[in-house]
Specification:
10 helices, 198 residues, globular, mainly alpha
């Protein structure tokens, strides 16, 4: 593609996102950054317009963009992550991307100061949301990141975040899983609500 110089005329964003994701999973951050640096940001929203399969393609595209944000944050290039995030006008999306990156870094057992920066940015974007009656997946992601960051310290705040959201059971599952992630099965089980079939 590079030799033929066709990447300026065709949309290869999925290719670069998947290549970057595979490189991150292989532990090759330099290769991942090189793939993400090739993203054609002017076309990035084409990936989110797909309505097939109940929005699964669009959701996967958003996760792949979140992985790019995570990679840039992990490699010390938070400015590039912020450039991607700022393309999104909706503060729910911006908050979600910050929280998604923080959560995924924590799931990779990475404890670095950038995680707190991502969480703080997610909270700042969340506070810009005016219509609080709409679905807010950012709250689920942020609650998960907070409990992964410090289960004993942040659980109360996580429950406050998910108090009135429609997808609360998924958020509670994440809280339980966060305790289990650190091997604390008793706490994980104690957070399962009683008398709930889900």
């Amino acid at each position: 593609i590079q030799k033929r110089k066709v990447d300026s005329t065709l949309d290869f964003n999925w290719l670069y996102l998947y290549a970057g994701n595979e490189a991150v999973n292989a532990g090759k951050l330099d290769e991942a950054v090189a793939s993400y640096d090739r993203l054609q940001t002017g076309n990035i929203f084409n990936l989110l317009r797909s309505k097939e399969f109940g929005g699964a393609v669009r959701n996967q595209s958003f996760r792949l963009i979140g992985n790019a944000v995570m990679c840039y944050a992990r490699s010390g290039q938070l400015n590039k992550a912020v450039q991607i995030i700022r393309m999104f006008k909706n503060p729910v999306n911006r908050s979600s991307l910050y929280a998604y990156a923080a959560k995924n870094l924590l799931l990779r057992k990475i404890q670095e100061p950038v995680i707190q920066e991502l969480i703080d940015s997610s909270v700042a974007e969340m506070n810009r949301i005016e219509n609080t009656t709409s679905a807010q997946p950012n709250r689920v992601l942020l609650a998960h990141a907070l409990v992964l960051q410090a289960p004993a310290k942040n659980t109360e705040e996580a429950y406050r975040l998910i108090k009135n959201i429609p997808i609360k059971i998924e958020a509670i599952q994440n809280i339980c899983a966060s305790f289990a992630f650190y091997g604390n099965m008793h706490e994980a089980r104690s957070h399962i609500p009683q008398f709930i079939s889900s």
